[in-house]
Amino acid sequence: MSAINLLREVLKASEKAANIARVCRQNPILFSLLVQEKSKDESNTRFAHDFKTLADCLIQEMIKHDIGKQFPELRDNIRGEENAKFTNTAGESIIVSVTDDPGNTTKALEKILNGDKVSAAALVDEVYREVEIDFESLELPTDSIPLDNDWSQLGIWIDPIDGTAEYIKGEEKLTKYSNIVSSGLKCCTVLIGVYETCKGTPILGVINQPFAEKISNQEEFREEYRSKIFWGLSVGDLKFNNIASQGTDARIAILSPSEQSKYVEFIRNQLKYDVVYSSGAGYKILKIATGEAELFLLSKGTTYKWDTCAPQAILRSMNGDLFDLQDTLINKSVKKISYHDHKVTRNIGGLIAYQNIDKLREFLKL
């Protein structure tokens, strides 16, 4: 069992996901058909209205299919945020599925898109396209890295598009730091995290930013986007990632815009951080991994295992980690977020993330 083989497949799946996200958003007419509100049982309590898109559902099912095909023993342990049921404008509910037969996927998408064969075909092309990735530029380890577990002892959490609201709105707002955005497409990430089911420990994470870099298409007179991909791998004492630290002299804490004022004031006045607000849990934790911010804190239990598994794996590959905030505050211990039970999906105690664990100890003293 090679960790590098699994990493390669996860990277490929993330880039295919990014392509689907871009194709879905590229056509305004198609995009207007794709968005629907989640049911009460599915929605995040933080939002008055929580939306999912066909892109979310299609990406999730594609990743399940592609990784499950390569690693059949792992297939039943691949889980994601979205319910695969999508309802078209006629009120007909259709299950979005990706199988070895593109024809089945095409039929389902045509129903969802009210018979729009052209749009359905465009999406199916992306789902079954063989993506090319420059693995050399992603700095993958050259040596084989054996895994301690059988494939059946691993699980995967997927967030097909973390930051769906930003994906829908697409309205970019900047912070005073040019490398951290407050909202917009750059906050959107595809998150794929692999964990050990027996220990509940994340060991491999990929974060793909589908809209990281804007490029100009001169021939078609439109702007397009290119991905930026981050990965981290921890197997025993072996740690690998492709992240070049972008440390800053400023002490930056990155928070949710809805963070409680008592925490904001403590972080500003006691810890002496400069506070910036941003959207997307994956994006915010990524900024901790890259060193562009030092502290991420979320006091509310509004994130889920699919939000945190991939970024936590990356943090762990850099000797950082993600912790349960309330347990840390009450017991003065450092309880790491874990993934033992796939039925317990919510990080109910909130989160605190550091890349430098010594900084966490300073936090605890205060």
What would the keywords be for this entry?
5-stranded mixed sheet, CysQ/Inositol_MonoPase, EC 3.1.3.57, Inositol_monophosphatase-like, 17 strands, alpha+beta, 25% strand
Radius of gyration: 20 Å
| Number of helices, where a helix is a run of at least 4 consecutive DSSP H or I residues | 11
Strand content: 25-35%
Overall form: globular
Q: Report helical residue fraction.
A: 25-40%
Q: Averaging pLDDT over every residue, what do you get?
A: 88
List unreliable stretches of 5+ residues: 43-50
By secondary-structure content and strand pairing, the structural class works out as alpha+beta
Question: How many beta-strand segments?
Answer: 17
Widest sheet: strand ordering: 3-6-9-10-11-12
First-last Cα distance: 45 Å
Q: Helix and strand string, N-terminal first?
A: HHEEHEEEHHEHEEEEEEEHEHEHEHEH
Account of the 3D structure:
- This protein has 366 residues and is α+β, with helices and mostly antiparallel strands.
- Helices cover 34% and strands 25% of the residues.
- It has 11 helices and 17 strands.
- It has helices at 3-26, 28-34, 54-70, 102-112, 117-128, 164-169, 261-269, 281-289, 305-316, 325-331, 357-365, and strands spanning 35-37, 51-53, 78-80, 85-87, 93-95, 154-162, 173-174, 181-183, 189-196, 201-217, 222-235, 238-241, 252-255, 274-277, 295-298, 321-324, 351-354.
- The strands form 5 sheets. It has a 6-stranded mixed beta sheet with strand order 3-6-9-10-11-12. The protein has a 5-stranded mixed beta sheet with strand order 14-13-15-17-16, with helices on both faces.
- Helix 7 links the parallel strand 13 and strand 14.
- Helix 1 packs antiparallel against helix 3 and helix 1 (3-26) runs antiparallel to helix 5.
- The chain starts with a helix and ends with a helix.
- Residues 43-50 have low confidence and may be disordered.
- It catalyses: 1D-myo-inositol 1,3,4-trisphosphate + H2O = 1D-myo-inositol 3,4-bisphosphate + phosphate; 1D-myo-inositol 1,4-bisphosphate + H2O = 1D-myo-inositol 4-phosphate + phosphate.
- Belongs to the inositol monophosphatase superfamily.
- InterPro entries: CysQ/Inositol_MonoPase (IPR050725), Inositol_monoP_metal-BS (IPR020583), Inositol_monophosphatase-like (IPR000760), INPP1_dom_1 (IPR044897).
